[in-house]
Amino acid sequence: MQVFYIPSSSMVPTLAVDDRIVVEKVSYRFGGPVRGDVVVFAGADRVADVDDDRTLTERALQAVGRFVGVVPPDPSDLVKRVIGLPGEEVSIVGGLLHIDGVGLAEAYVADAVAADFGPVVVPDGSLFFLGDNRRNSADSRGGLGFVDEERVIGRAVAVVWPFGNAASLVGERPRPVPQTSSVG
């Protein structure tokens, strides 16, 4: 488990700026992410601390601070919702998310995006991520693109700080939109 700090509004209303979330790092060793999971993953520009000139003590204190959520995480770590799994076709039409042509209702989305997107097919070994604040999220629709599954750090399970925002993050899944038929 690790605590992560939320620095942006890309996941509003699910996560607010300055929230602290608990991320578990074990379950994905036994199975991959599921559509609807909120996950933390390493951004593409994350670099190793090869030329880090901090002392061992300074690095250890920073690691402990990140673990408990009082020091911001690596700026390249991102938090988004898993939307598309390998082999799936993802599109947004009229503000409604579609997976393999089936419209999905997403109760957690702040405000539907008017712009259509896709369709795109998620490559093997990759995931397609969206922020819940679709109008203010740099996600797989833009520069982020598809994300290698290996970059996933863990699944967010709860908001733990501030106490007034405490909530479970497990179980919120997109649901198929009921099809309406017209008899005429």
Please give a structural write-up.
By secondary structure, the chain is mainly beta. It has a single domain (2-170), classed as Umud Fragment, subunit A. The protein has 1 helix and 13 strands, in the order βββαββββββββββ. It has one helix at residues 56-68; strands at residues 2-5, 20-24, 38-42, 77-84, 89-93, 96-99, 102-105, 117-121, 126-130, 147-148, 152-161, 167-168, 175-176. Strands 1, 2, 3, 4, 9, 10, 11 and 12 form an 8-stranded antiparallel β-sheet that branches. A hairpin with a 2-residue loop joins strand 5 (89-93) and strand 6 (96-99). The termini are far apart. The relative contact order is 0.25. Residues 46-51 and 180-184 have low confidence and may be disordered.
Protein traits:
five-stranded antiparallel β-sheet; mainly beta; 184 residues; 13 strands; 7% helix; disordered C terminus; Umud Fragment, subunit A
Brief summary of the model shown:
The chain is mainly beta and 184 residues long.
Beta-strand level of the residues, as a percent range? Answer: 25-35%
Level-1 CATH class name: Mainly Beta
Query: Helical content, roughly?
Result: under 10%
List the total number of helices.
1
> How many β strands by DSSP?
13
| Class based on secondary structure composition and strand pairing | mainly beta
Q: What is the overall pLDDT average? A: 82
Would you spell out the secondary-structure blueprint of this structure?
Blueprint: E1 2-5, E2 20-24, E3 38-42, H1 56-68, E4 77-84, E5 89-93, E6 96-99, E7 102-105, E8 117-121, E9 126-130, E10 147-148, E11 152-161, E12 167-168, E13 175-176
Antiparallel strand pairs: 1-2, 2-11, 3-4, 3-11, 4-9, 5-6, 5-8, 6-7, 7-13, 9-10, 11-12
